[in-house]
Amino acid sequence: MGCKMQVLMCLPVIVVLSAIINFAIIFSLFLIFLIITGNFYFISVVEMIPLLIIEVMFALGLGVALGVINVFFRDVGQFVAVLLQFWFWFTPIVYVLSTLPVWAQDILKYNPMTVLVDNYQRVVIHQQSIEWGSVWPVMVAAVLLCILGMHLFRKHAADMVDEL
Description:
By secondary structure, the chain is mainly alpha-helical. Helices cover 82% and strands 0% of the residues.
């Protein structure tokens, strides 16, 4: 069981490392763009690190938990694909949060990705510090999702091998 568990744990690690390498390449191009345009601020890059760690933890925890559930309930994968489309549009990535009515802004602040994107924008665009009061709940959710994902993974690792 121990050896199988280690092999199975490699899968999420490989996916995360692959995404980090992809991000590093794209982010390097973004930094080059900022340098060329004269908008590079070193402190902004340093302040992004905690946000990136929180985002990776959130995604990893959610991904592992949903991945384990998807093994036993195949429709979860279909639901998540639709949910991610809605989640993208309910996150202010291609629009600015302040363009929405106040009531919509208040609702979107419950979206953990809205909080992270807003803080990325504060750091990169406005050269302001992270608003930790809004980030703490997302960090707690990320840690809880990682714990949940690991618990589900460890509890169902043997059954997953049989199901797959």
